[in-house]
Design brief:
Blueprint lengths: L15 E2 L7 E3 L5 E5 L4 H11 L10 E4 L3 E5 L8 E6 L2 H5 L8 H19 L5
Antiparallel strand pairs: 1-2, 2-3, 3-6, 4-5, 5-6
Length: 127
């Protein structure tokens, strides 16, 4: 029986903010880049990292949506005014010669799994 892909095969939680406190990237616990943060709102950055780590003290977003490479959030009751917050990264880790050397198709599949998982966490809907 063929084993299913799991995003944890590539990235290891907990997620962490940029070393030095910059508001730019989110990394896994082994130092692999996962996301670029697409806002300069540091409080939003903190909230997202907490949610990605399952911290239930952080307020989940009312609405979260995604495409293949980005995640958008809003706290608007009607689901309007989405803002882009995360851009999936880590292509070099997935496909690089000194890294996992995945085929493009497999790398995209892993990135999609990570995005889907993170969307659930931002809504506090764990797997």
């Amino acid at each position: 029986m063929k084993r299913e892909f799991d995003w944890r095969d590539v990235w290891t939680p907990p997620f962490r903010k940029d070393p030095g406190g910059y508001c730019a990237y989110i990394w896994d616990s082994e130092g692999h880049m996962c996301f670029s943060f697409m806002s300069d709102d540091y409080e939003l950055y903190e909230r997202i990292v907490k949610l990605l780590n399952g911290d239930t003290s952080a307020v989940p977003f009312k609405h979260v949506k995604n495409d293949d490479e980005s995640i958008y959030v809003t706290d608007d009751e009607k689901g309007a005014n989405f803002i882009p917050v995360l851009l999936v990264r880590g292509w070099g880790h997935l496909t690089g010669q000194g890294a996992l050397r995945m085929k493009e198709k497999d790398a995209k599949a892993f990135q999609k799994l990570l995005v889907e998982h993170c969307v659930k966490l931002l809504k506090h809907k764990e797997e």
